[in-house]
Amino acid sequence: MSTIAAVSTPNAVGGIAVIRISGENAIQVADRIFTAAGGKRVADMEGYTCAYGFAHDGDERLDDCILTVFRAPHSYTGEDTAEISCHGGIYVTRRVLRAALANGAENALPGEFTKRAFMNGKLDLTQAEAVMDVISARSERELKMAEDLRSGKAFRIAEGCSEKLLRVLGDLAAWTDYPEEDIPAVEPAMLEKKLAEVRDELNSLIVNYDAGRIVREGVLTAIVGRPNVGKSTLFNLLSGCQRSIVTDIAGTTRDIVEETVRLGDIVLRLSDTAGIRETADVIEGIGVEMAEKLMTSAELVIAVFDGGCPCTEDDMYLIEKIRDTKAVAVVNKNDKEQMFDTDIFTQINIPFVYISARENNGIDELKNAIEKVFCISNNTLNSVTAANERQRFCIEATIESLDNAIHVLRNGENLDAVNVLVDEAEQRLLSLTGKRITDAVVDEVFSRFCVGK
Ligand code: GDP
Ligand code: MG
User: What is the residue with the minimal CA distance to atom 19 of ligand 1?
Assistant: First the structure.
């Protein structure tokens, strides 16, 4: 394979930067642009060793550097790899990279180092995808989830299932191919049990998918309610700054104001909206329209009510709207005498909490209520789950084939039909780990990576 090079550290000023070169001629390329202070040739360096020296482009000396050599297959990519650590200036780093490109290396594409690691069997596709999740993790929880996948937890479950399916296929093949031989008949009940076992195991990888996705990607959340109930105050409290203007003049918030905030384990992609009410003001009217639209596209609605007033007609209008969505009702202003009758929420089964946005009171309860809506608990978050839509799709497709196979078995149909479906399940499962996958899918996966990884 060609030799590729890229800057693996961020495109920013820092203490050091690393230029990574990987491929058949990585050592030769490094040899041409690096001279060790002690006079040692790069070609003579063993894997896992480094040398101090300087990088140069032809005769022009660029920078003092450390060169680290990795020998195939004991490197990240599985190929010969050289890493040059130079001073972390943007210009000097580019010059060293340019020298590598002028001396036999090609520019690496996004994710190409990890793609090569995958091609060389250093990791499966779920682990490769987790590399990017580790890099983009913003919290302890996200990192743990990504690390579980990177260390191969999902891969091992998929492999185990795949082996079980192969054994089933072996039994079926022996029985269908050599019917005249004295091979023990395949017992349908036993077969069904085995298939159901695999299906349940795979199902465990997706039952908590939504909880995991919410931790990783955040929830599109709309704060809605009639004017003056305290939406903007709550929004500002959650975002930790005065992003949205708060006054006691109804109709203050008109535009949608957005902020990403973390509430416990959940990231809320939060939007503050105009108070929903009938209005003659054209601009406010547009704001109200936007708020209603957002309410239908949001994954979570935080519906705010004023605890200091009895339920109004506008409140009832909102309650009707949130009946069938994922919503938490927030009865605000619990510092005031309470006039709002919350029985309505119990009747229509919407979780509700009392808070005071102004006094910063009850936010923990709000956090718990939101976590409950998304079934988020330590248990769900500690389980291994699919990391992205691609993985979820592969697993669901496999489960579908297995369900069909079980259905056919129960109907007492020909074992040939079962064989075809189990084989289909096995093929679909192999695309999860990347053992059987099209180039287009592989390219798609790695195109989401950054250059240099
Ligand atoms: P919005 O129209 O729903 O965005 O409401 P605002 O956040 O602009 O607040 C309207 C008024 O209610 C302001 O005067 C706030 O200070 C007041 N307010 C907001 N939260 C509370 C609260 O928890 N307790 C009390 N007493 N007043 C609040
Ligand atoms: Mg407001």
Answer: 230
